[in-house]
Amino acid sequence: MSTFEIVRISSDFIEFLIPITILITAITNLIPKNGKAPKQLQIIKYIVVLLFGLIHGLGFSNYLKSLLGNESEIILPLFAFNIGIEIGQICIVSVILILSKLLTSTKKINQQKLNWFLSSAGAFISVFLIFKRLMIII
Q: Is the pLDDT of residue 2 over 60?
C-alpha cells in the first residue's frame, strides 16, 4: 500500500461534495443571525467545519497525488504544496477583505448587502458546479 492509499474515496465524489460544502456555507451566510448562538449550535458548527475541511483536504490530496506521480519522497513536495495552498488562500482572502473594506467605506455599500450579494453569488456558482459534477458521476 502506498502512502496515498490510506483513505480511498472516489475523486469524482469528492469533487461533487466540495461545491455542496460551499453551497451550505453560502446558505448559512444568508440566514439572519439573531444574537449569540447556543452552545449546541456552536458545537455543530465546529463539526461541520471539521467535515468540510476533511472534504476539501481530500480534494487537495487527489490533486497532490496527480502532481507527484510515482515520487517516492513526499515530505518536501507535500510541505511546498501546503505552503503554496496557504499562501494562495491568504492572498485571496486579503484581496476580498481589502475590496470589501473599500466598497463599504468609499462607496458606502452596506456590509450586510455586500455579504448577501457575495453569498448569493457563491451559492449560484456552487449550484452550477454541483449539477456539472452530478453529470460526471451519473
A: no
Q: In 3D, which of 114, 134, 76 has the Cα closest to residue 68?
A: 76
**Dihedral angle at the C-alpha atoms of 82, 87, 93, 95, nearest 10 degrees?**
-150
Residue with cell string 472534504: 55
pLDDT digits (tens, 9 = 90+) for 24-49: 988 888 887 776 767 777 788 888 88
Give the list of residues 6+ apart from residue 122 with CB closer than 8 angstroms, or none.
22, 23, 25, 26, 29
Of 11, 12, 13, 21, which Cα lies nearest the Cα of 122? 21
Q: What is the pTM of this model?
A: 0.76
Residue whose C-alpha cell is 497532490: 64
Structure-block grid coordinates of residue 61: 490530496
